[in-house]
Amino acid sequence: MTAAALLSAPVSASAGDYFWSGDWYLKVGAAGFSAPRYEGSKKYLFQVTPLISLGKAGSTVRFSSRNDNPSFALIDNGAFRAGATGKLIMPRDEGDSDDLKGLTPVKFGGELGAFAEVYPTDFLRLRGEVRHGIRSHHGVVADIAADAFVDVVPNVRVSAGPRMTIASKDYMKTYYGVKPSEVAASGLAAYDPGGGIQSVGAGAAITWQVNEKIETSAFAEYKRLVGPAADSSLVKQRGDRDQFLIGVAATYKFDFTLR
């Protein structure tokens, strides 16, 4: 399981100013959702995660998705943004599910990398992230997404689009592999996966800007595990290739100024 995005700061400094100078906003809130207990699980758990984002007022971010990881834009001209991104990775062990008994626990850690996004039209955003694991795993993960969005009324936005995740062998081994030494304790068949496409799917959301301070949303995601992930004995014997997520979220915005 991964934690919610904790920071989003698209920033560009003006001449003569420090990069932090100017008007900022801080959004705080929470999301409640039902999601698989672990990647590939067929059992679900209701979870609550904090939502915290930090950004500069008047930034050129036209659209954001709950799938976006914390990011810092080094290039931002409105139609194109690129920079650094990261992701917090929560630990995974048999305490999350009996299905994981006998498998090597996944440690608390994170992923660091880069992102780029482009707006081919005023209603479409394409975004890609490439991240390298730190402590939790030593693999490389790439997320690719396209989102079409429209404001059905001035304060209600509907968005939807496809997603794909690609991962290296080291990532797949951490989350889907079963070592020969783990067979007896886990009851799973040994499995040594390669890298490749991990999942394909789609997501959708409805966002309601209640007022200048409060924003609420409802969201749903579906992904289907494919390739090395789908062939894992953990998924085949105890899990499900079809993964669903549905939830709601709300945030409150605080405005402040730094000199």
Radius of gyration: 19 Å
Question: Strand count, sense and closure of the main sheet?
Answer: 11 strands, antiparallel
Structural class: mainly beta
Instruction: Work out the helicity level.
Output: under 10%
> Would you identify the regions where 5 or more consecutive residues have pLDDT less than 50?
1-15
Mean pLDDT level? 89
Description:
This protein has an eleven-stranded antiparallel sheet with strand order 2-1-11-10-9-8-7-6-5-4-3. The model is unreliable at 1-15 (pLDDT under 50). The chain has helices at residues 169-176, 183-186, 227-230, 233-238; strands spanning 22-36, 44-56, 71-76, 80-89, 109-121, 124-134, 140-153, 156-167, 196-209, 214-225, 242-258. The protein contains four helices and eleven strands, in the order ββββββββααββααβ. The chain is 8% helix and 53% strand. β9 (196-209) and β10 (214-225) form a beta hairpin. It is elongated. By secondary structure, it is mostly beta strands. 29% of the residues are buried.
